[in-house]
C-alpha cells in the first residue's frame, strides 16, 4: 500500500484529527490484510506510532458468518505476515448473548440427531405474518403446484433464478435415521 503524500494527506489528517472511534460492521468479511491496512492508514493520518494511532476500533458481527471474499479471516494471521504483531489478538472481546440461544440449542440438537419432529417450531420460527415478511407459516405443496427458483442451480439446463416450473411428483419415503425429512418432491421446469 502506497503512503499518502501532499495535499491529500494534509486533508485526511485534518479530517481524522478529532476522531476517537472507528466502527466496523460485519467484521467477518474484513480480511486480516485489510485490518493491517487500516492500522497503516490510521498511523499516517494521526502520526501517532501506536496501533491504530490510538483510535478505538469497535467491531460488530458474527465471525463465523461470512468469510472475506479474498484474504485470510480477520482472526487468522497469514504465514507470510507471521513475524509481525498479530493485530486480532490485541482486541478485547465482548460477546453479546443471543436472546434465542435456548431455541437455537434445541435446533442444533435436533439437526444433530436428525429428530426435527421433536422441535416446537413455533418457538423457533415465527408464524405471525407481520414477523415473517408476509410469508405464510406453512407452504402447501402438491402435484401441479407452481414453483420458482430463487437462485441459479444449473445455467446449462436453464435452471436459473426466476425459472418457473411445477411439481410433477411427491415421493413419501420410509424414514431412515440418516434423513432429515420424511419426503422429497420432484419438479419440472419449463425451458
From TrEMBL:
Q: Which domain of life is it from?
A: Eukaryota
**What EC number(s) is this enzyme filed under?**
5.6.2.3
Catalyses which reaction(s)? ATP + H2O = ADP + phosphate + H(+)
Q: Is Metal-binding given among the entry's keywords?
A: no
Output one GO MF annotation.
ATP binding
Cofactor(s) essential for the protein: Mg(2+)
Residue intervals passing through the bilayer: none
Q: Does the keyword ATP-binding apply?
A: yes
PANTHER family, A to Z:
ATP-DEPENDENT DNA HELICASE
Q: What is this protein called?
A: ATP-dependent DNA helicase
Q: What is the lineage of its organism?
A: Eukaryota, Metazoa, Ecdysozoa, Arthropoda, Chelicerata
Amino acid at each position: 500500500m502506497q503512503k499518502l503524500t501532499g495535499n491529500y494527506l494534509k486533508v485526511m489528517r485534518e479530517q481524522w484529527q478529532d476522531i476517537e472511534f472507528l466502527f466496523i460492521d460485519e467484521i467477518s468479511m474484513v480480511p486480516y490484510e485489510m485490518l493491517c491496512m487500516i492500522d497503516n492508514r490510521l498511523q499516517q493520518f494521526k502520526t501517532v506510532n501506536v496501533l491504530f494511532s490510538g483510535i478505538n476500533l469497535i467491531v460488530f458481527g458474527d465471525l463465523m458468518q461470512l468469510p472475506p471474499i479474498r484474504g485470510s479471516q480477520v482472526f487468522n494471521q497469514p504465514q507470510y505476515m507471521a513475524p509481525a504483531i498479530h493485530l486480532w489478538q490485541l482486541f478485547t472481546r465482548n460477546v453479546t448473548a443471543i436472546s434465542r440461544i435456548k431455541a437455537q440449542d434445541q435446533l442444533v440438537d435436533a439437526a444433530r440427531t436428525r429428530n426435527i419432529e421433536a422441535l416446537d417450531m413455533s418457538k423457533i420460527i415465527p408464524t405471525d405474518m407481520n414477523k415473517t415478511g408476509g410469508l405464510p407459516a406453512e407452504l402447501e405443496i402438491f402435484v401441479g403446484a407452481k414453483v420458482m427458483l430463487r437462485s441459479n442451480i444449473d445455467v446449462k439446463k436453464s435452471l436459473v433464478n426466476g425459472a418457473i416450473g411445477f411439481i410433477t411428483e411427491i415421493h413419501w419415503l420410509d424414514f431412515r435415521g440418516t434423513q432429515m425429512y420424511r419426503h422429497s418432491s420432484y419438479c419440472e421446469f419449463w425451458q
